Amino acid sequence: MDQTIGKKLKALRKEKKLTLKEIAEKTDLSISFLSQVERMKSSLTLESLKKISEVLQVNPSYFFSTTEEEKQPTVIRKIDSEADLLINQFIYKDLSGNHPNLGFSPLLVILKVGENKGSQFTHRGKEFLYVLEGELTVQIKEEEYSLHAHDSMIIDASSPHYWLNLTDKPVKFLCVSSE
Question: Which string of DSSP letters, residue by residue, matches 35-67?
Fold first, then answer.
């Protein structure tokens, strides 16, 4: 697990003067699980990260970005790794290049085979999804949409939605969320 996630979670929780109990109640996650995440003893699922982000009123990419502002164009190389898939249930790579206050959050998301558990969530803004490889299932309310490589979709993120991988291969896509 990326150690910065736990540290950022704890710092943001304290900044917002929330207890682990309050976050647990709002996310349906246990206090002990949240404590383990903060101490970097447990890793998060995509669904858990999104629930926590919503309660803390930040985009999930907050936990993957740094605060140093870059003045030069940023090139990010080798942003995905097959080794990451062996360790993590999903891969969430921040593509903002350490640029704060962009007004949008560009992410590379890779869902492993069978990453199809979870419940729908909502957040502010819009999401632009672009599938690079595989087949992504997007569930919006009761409707399911199947996106293949080179398909894209824009959704109102205030509508309950969830991303699923119902195939036997990883799916890789870009998610650009407005803030």
Answer: HHHHTTSS---HHHHHHHHHHHTS-GGGGG---
Render pLDDT for 26-45 as a digit per residue (tens, 0 to 9). 988 999 999 988 888 887 87
Exposed, middle or buried: residue 125 (CB in 10 Å: 0-12, 13-18, 19+)?
middle
162-175 burial by CB neighbour count: b if 16+ within 10 A, else e?
Answer: bbbbebeebbbbbb
Domains located in the chain, CATH noted? 3-64 (1.10.260.40), 82-178 (2.60.120.10)
Q: H or E element: which one contains 172?
A: strand 171-178
pLDDT digits (tens, 9 = 90+) for 161-177: 988 899 999 999 998 88
Please give the model's pTM, rounded to 2 decimal places: 0.60
